[in-house]
DNA sequence: TTCTAAAGATCAGCCGGCTGACTAATTCGG
DNA sequence: CCGAATTAGTCAGCCGGCTGATCTTTAGAA
């Protein structure tokens, strides 16, 4: 496995970390993708396109993720009076509660690694350069 | 995004790198998962359970991946005479050819990063510790 | 020897990425 | 002011992870 190309190591590591997470998350009725959305709307309501851009995900993917969150009662969608194409996504009280609980364990489950800041920098580099113009917004 | 938990950075980076790959790979009629299998059977024929273990993937997932590779004509499955539960997976000439072409570009597409060996070590660490006994074989 | 447990492979069904195609609403140019 | 282009959202369908259940075959124990 030491001979594997770096990209393959990256996706394998990612999958295994996500898997380790899954149990704790499903116990809360959440999923990985859902947690990201809860995090993003923590800063206030947003439209689906905005959320997709921030999560670096296509709008169709975000649409389904939000649909599942709504089904669980963690968020609500309200039509925007000013632009009736838009649906504004908002956290519910239940969503706020589950986010508070999930957030605390999010960092704890990540395995120990020698140079954590170095790893984070490398990942941010990769995201920046590999995003290839698809995600204009850097924030 | 600098505030994101490391696990989320990891999966985001992984997805973006895979996406950058997809175009080159689909042009060859291949997929990420398929390429891994072609790499693994490069060392000789193997059973599906063996391949699943080496790729760190469940047997059901490997089953479908192999099915698609077979459909494309890149591998063949033969029943094992000694143990009729087993199906031995073998590369075809076409599979060998496409692997040779894909392999050469695999490393080239990975973005530049400062401390590549450090990154690889960190990822191997994560895979090792986060595999949590699921994948006994360390090789 | 027979009968049960384990192993290899698959099926069904879920989630979360993606693309392509579509609708409804808004914006903008002539 | 009206029609074309753009934008927000969704639907359909694919791939690749996963779990749980099932089937056939092999191995092992009584």
Q: Whole-number radius of gyration of chain A?
A: 17 Å
Number of domains of chain A: 1
State the end-to-end CA separation of chain A: 35 Å
Strand order of the largest sheet of chain A: 1-3-2
Shape of chain A: globular
Major sheet of chain A: size, sense and barrel closure?
3 strands, antiparallel
Quaternary state of this entry equals homodimer
The CATH class of chain A turns out to be Mainly Alpha
Class by alpha and beta content of chain A = mainly alpha
Query: What is the tally of beta strands of chain A?
Result: 3
CATH topology of chain A: Arc Repressor Mutant, subunit A
Q: Could you explain the architecture of this structure?
A:
- Two copies of one chain form a homodimer.
- Helices cover 59% and strands 9% of the residues of chain A.
- With 139 residues, chain A is mainly alpha-helical.
- Chain A has a three-stranded antiparallel sheet.
- In chain A, a hairpin with a 7-residue loop joins strand 2 and strand 3.
- The first copy, chain A, is globular, with a radius of gyration of 17 Å.
- Chain A has a single domain (6-110), classed as Arc Repressor Mutant, subunit A, CATH 1.10.10.10.
- The model of chain A has no long low-confidence stretch (mean pLDDT 90).
- In chain A, helix 3 crosses helix 4 (59-72).
- The first copy, chain A, has helices at residues 6-27, 32-40, 48-55, 59-72, 93-106, 116-130; strands at residues 46-47, 75-79, 87-91.
- The interface between A and B is large, with 49 and 49 residues.
């Amino acid at each position: 496995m030491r001979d594997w190309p770096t990209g393959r190591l990256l996706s394998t590591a990612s999958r295994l970390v996500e898997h380790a997470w899954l149990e704790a998350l499903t116990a809360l009725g959440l999923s990985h993708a859902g947690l990201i959305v809860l995090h993003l709307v923590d800063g206030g309501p947003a439209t689906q396109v905005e959320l997709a851009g921030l999560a670096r995900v296509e709008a169709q993917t975000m649409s389904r993720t939000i649909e599942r969150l709504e089904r669980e009662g963690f968020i609500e969608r309200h039509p925007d009076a000013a632009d009736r194409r838009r649906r504004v996504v908002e956290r519910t009280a239940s969503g706020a509660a589950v986010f508070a609980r999930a957030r605390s364990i999010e960092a704890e489950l990540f395995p120990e690694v020698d140079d954590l800041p170095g790893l984070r920098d490398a990942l941010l580099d990769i995201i920046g350069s590999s995003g290839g113009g698809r995600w204009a917004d850097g924030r």
